Amino acid sequence: MSSTLSSPLSPVVSLSNVHKSFGALKVLDGVSFDVGVGEVAAIIGQSGSGKSTALRCINALETIQQGTIQVCGHAIHDPALDRRALRRDVGIVFQSYNLFPHLTVEQNIMLAPTCVKALSKGEARDLAREVLSHVGLEAKADQYPEQLSGGQQQRVAIARSLAMRPKLMLFDEVTSALDPQLTGEVLKVMETLAREGMTMILVTHEMAFARKVASKVVYMHQGRVWETGTGAMLDDPQTPELRAFIGNGL
Amino acid sequence: MQSFGLIHVEFLAWAALWTVGLSLIAFVGGGLLGFAVALARVSGSLAVRAAAIVYIQIVQGTPLLILLFLIYFGVAVAGFSGVPAILAAGAGLTVYSSGFLAEIWRGCIQSVPKTQWEAAECLALTRWQRMTRVILPQALRMATAPTVGFLVQIVKNTSLASVVGFVELSQAGKLINNSIFEPFTIFVTVALFYFALCFPLSTWSRSLERKLNVSRR
User: Fold this and answer.
1) Interchain pair B119, A94: CB under 8 A
2) Contact, A95 vs B119, CB < 8 A?
3) Domain span including residue B149
4) Strands A199-203 and A216-221
5) For chain A, how many structural domains are there in total?
6) Which sequence ranges are marked TM in the entry (chain B) (predicted)?
7) Is B1 domain-assigned?
8) Is residue A5 part of a domain?
9) Sign (positive/negative) of CA torsion B83, B87, B90, B91?
């Protein structure tokens, strides 16, 4: 039922028997999976299946009660984890964008490189222009987040993460708040990143995108990894739960 | 006996300057202390947070009059007799303002969405950088209107400084009344002075509130 695909290269992310509860509510019930270098892993499942929590655990935004998580050489389960070192290696994009409303697009992107990596203003500005052109928004550098559409804000959020040159990018339902057209422009950016070899884990409801772009699909159900496989697994579900989920989802 | 005239108005105007001066001391001193307490109030350390809560509760739970007495006589008990009235009054009002400003600003800091903290944390910013670069600039916007509003309270409460012998607007009114006994005329004039000081502040506060509501920037 919960088979773990072995990745060809040494894993960037490795979850092993991860347990997590919010009070009496068991959210992750022995979750294990690996993601290798350059892989694009899509975590799918119903609301409440634990997929977002799993992603947040990978970035140490939630603490786990049992099991181990290794991310880019950091032991997430270790109480002595250096969170800032972890966050230099891992970028995350949220469903609600979470741009800083008091800063322009460019300032949003420049903040972390100047604060954390001690880049000069000039270097950071060049970097901001570069990542903005990557997401097709160099013309918006001097605007404030509220002046942008949701899709544009989300692309800025992606650019802001990219500016830290992460080894791994996490995407937490990044298109769930967007209409289909805006969803398309964000997915296009993500597809480009995937093609360029970025290691990515995305929690998503976009089945077509998962099938097309993901090298690994992890179907979660009731806090467990129910089924894993390649994108093709969505065409040939092995469990009745995944069959029902896809039936409802498409 | 002399009747109420220009000379008295001049005396009141001079005393009003002391009211303004004392208000400024209270606002600057209370602002600095209150800002430190507000930061302590949202600190990551439970002990620091608890200490800040206790401080705020004590200050807010004590009448300003008693605070002023405590400081004025407390300092004398500690062996420093003859404390200048402005120091005692300034210290008392500073403590008083810090307790309230800390709580106003704590509310503003905590009303910045938690997701902003999270986003800043995920960009590897230190706790201090998150606070100064992301949270405080947003909290500041929200804090402006209520802070200016509280300034009105400070101005009015400086009248209590008369109990430690400080001659500000209210005490000046009392002094004049002792000599010419025209309480109604005198205290209406005193009230007009207070109004002239406070009205611009509350108007400013209201316009700030309107402006900041229109745009989040």
Assistant:
1) yes
2) no
3) 6-214
4) unpaired
5) 1
6) 12-40, 52-73, 85-105, 184-204
7) no
8) no
9) negative
Do residues A22 and A195 make contact, with C-beta atoms less than 8 angstroms apart?
A: no
**CB-based contact, A62 to chain B, within 8 Å:** no
> Domain limits at A25?
11-98+167-249
- The set of residues, in sequence order, having a beta carbon less than 8 Å from that of B134 and lying 6+ positions away, is A100, A111, B112, B116, B117, B119, B120, B125
- Do residues A85 and A164 lie in contact, with contact meaning Cβ atoms separated by under 8 Å? no
Per-residue pLDDT tens digits of chain B, which is 217 residues long:
678 999 999 999 999 999 999 999 999 999 999 999 999 999 999 999 999 999 999 999 999 999 999 998 888 888 877 788 888 999 999 999 999 999 999 999 999 999 999 999 999 999 999 999 999 999 998 999 999 999 999 999 999 999 888 999 999 999 999 999 999 999 999 999 999 999 999 999 888 888 876 555 4
- Indicate the SS3 state at residue A135: coil
Residue A16 region by backbone torsions, left for phi larger than 0, else alpha for psi between -120 and 50, else beta: beta
B184-196: b or e for each residue (b if 16 or more CB lie within 10 Å)?
A: eebeebbeebbee
Residues of B in contact with A61 (CB under 8 A): 118, 121-122
Residue B49 Cα distances to B14, B43, B56, B140, angstroms: 43, 6, 11, 21
Predicted ipTM of the assembly? 0.90
- What gap in Å lies between CA A202 and CA A39, rounded to an integer? 11
Residues constituting chain B: 217
**The two structure tokens encoding residue B48:** 């620091």
Is the Cβ pair A91, B126 closer than 8 Å? no
What domain count does chain B have? 1
Interface of B with A in 98-127 (CB under 8 A): 115-116, 118-126
CATH number where B74 lies: 1.10.3720.10
Name the residue of chain A whose CA is nearest to B138's CA.
A102
